[in-house]
Every structure is written in structure tokens, then in C-alpha cells.
Amino acid sequence: MSHYQLCAITARELGENPLGSASTPSALVLLALPQSRWKQFREIEHMSAEVQEVVRSLKPAPTILTLNPDPVYTRPGYVFAARLNWTDSGMHPQAFMITEANLEEAFIALLQEDWGTLSPWEVEAPERMLLVCTHGSHDSACGKLGYPIYRHLRSQASAHTQIWRACHIGGHRFAPTLLDLPEGRSWGFLDQEKAIQILKQEGPLDAVRGHLRGYMGLSPFAQILEGELFFQHGWEWTRKPRVLELQQIEGEVTSKPFQQKHPVQRAFVEISTDTHLYRGTVVYHRTGQTALNSGKVPLADIHEYHLENWSQEDL
């Protein structure tokens, strides 16, 4: 069976739940550059020999995301750049305005966390950044569905929140997709109302069930428990320090467990905050189908999981 429509429309029609699909970067490096230069910094075969050597030496390497330049957020003649590393309560951002002449040197320093080299260009990091994927050349769903959400968010955002157009951030079948930084939470299947609720972090969380892709500081199965705790505790949960751990899995796991040949049957997850320990069991439900890309493509198998139970203990 093939579908000609946008993959995100097909995935919604087939009832795919995005929870657990958030990417899991070890760190993020952001660069605001014209799209014609994105490959030079995102795709290793297009990087200079020196940058290639550095990227290959890093284990794990940070995830590189490119942004469309924005004259409101960037000084003329400079490139906005940032690195975000994980903490217990989200990601810690450090931001820079880099001169074009020093861009490759600074990019290498960002990859290697060479803060001494970067110090002349450091600026105050944005309080909050929402990255909306509008990368239509990667998949048409992101361009057609993502750009209107970007424009709507941009018209409603406060001075403390920057709204950026971003390159492919993964999961285009969940378009429109959004990353909320520095919290590190990923969203999909957005419409204007849900996007504004996420921007303002207010209103009943049940209204955004079915839109949460997950907390990027966790592996996919742990994202499912963390997502339920988020819905139970409300927006305040996003500000709680927490330690997250996947305790045990029945079966081997690849980097894409929802698409691997043999589904994992059960995963045990523990999450602790400064006051509570949470335990949950995520179980295999069934294998359905989805469209991984837009256009005339065959549907692909996708494993579905749900949270069977969870418990809470005082610490």
C-alpha cells in the first residue's frame, strides 16, 4: 500500500502516538547559517578535512543543528552559535556571536568544548529558544506544515523567547515538530492552539497529549514514563531536577527500537527527583504501520508501546 500525501497526515490518520520518538543527543551545537551552507557543517562528507577529523574523534559527538539566520537575533556580519550540554534539569546553553573569518575555528572549539578559544565571542544565552523544523527540502511535510506554526509562534512570543526556523530535527512524520530549549522537550503534530499553549506553558496538559514526543535527555522507553509524569505533575515538572535511568530491558535494543525487526517486550524504568523515586513498566502493545516519508512510499512497520504501570516512593 502506498500513500501520496504528506507523511505527517498519514501518521495522524493511522493514529501513531509520537511519545518516545524524541531524539537523544549527547549535546547540541547550533549554527545560524544560510541553507546553502548547511551541508558544510552538518554532513561529514561536506566538512573540511580538519573538521572531519575532529568530528570522528568525538565519542559521542554532539548533534549539530543549523538554523535560518535571523536579523533580529543576530548582529550584522556575525554568525549566531550555541552549545547546550545536559544537566539534571535540562540543558545548559552557552551562546556566541562569531565573526565569519573565525567560524571554522569557533566551530571546532564548540565541538571540543574549548571555552578559552570561544570566550571572545561569548554573549548572554537566550532565556528560551523554540526551534521549529521548516526544512521542506528534507521532507515537504516540514515546509508545508512547519512554516505556518513558526510564523504564528513568532507573532506571539515575548522578548525572552526566541523562535527559530530549524533544519531537520528528526521525525518529520510528526510535523510540525518543535524543540523547546533549554528544557530539552520535543513536540509534534502541532496546530496553532497547541503551539501557543506550549509557548506559554499554561493550560491543561491533557490538551497536549498526543503531541509530546518526549524529553530528549532520556532513551525512548524512559521517555514514555517521563511523559506520563509530566502529564500528572503539570508544567512545574519541567523545572524539577531529576535523575533518569533505564533499569532493564527484555530484549536487545537498536538506536530505533520502534522500527527494529523484533520488538522489545518489556522495559523497566526508574526516575528520581530530589523527593521521589518513580518506577514504571513499558510494554509492547502491537505492531502497526506508518509513513516514514512524504510522497509515494510504502507503509512501514512501527512498534507501539504503552506504560503498563508506574509507582511512586518518597525519598
From TrEMBL:
<dbReference type="Pfam" id="PF06999">
    <property type="entry name" value="Suc_Fer-like"/>
</dbReference>
<dbReference type="InterPro" id="IPR009737">
    <property type="entry name" value="Aim32/Apd1-like"/>
</dbReference>
<dbReference type="InterPro" id="IPR036249">
    <property type="entry name" value="Thioredoxin-like_sf"/>
</dbReference>
<dbReference type="InterPro" id="IPR010350">
    <property type="entry name" value="Aim32/Apd1-like_bac"/>
</dbReference>
<protein>
    <recommendedName>
        <fullName>Sucrase ferredoxin</fullName>
    </recommendedName>
</protein>
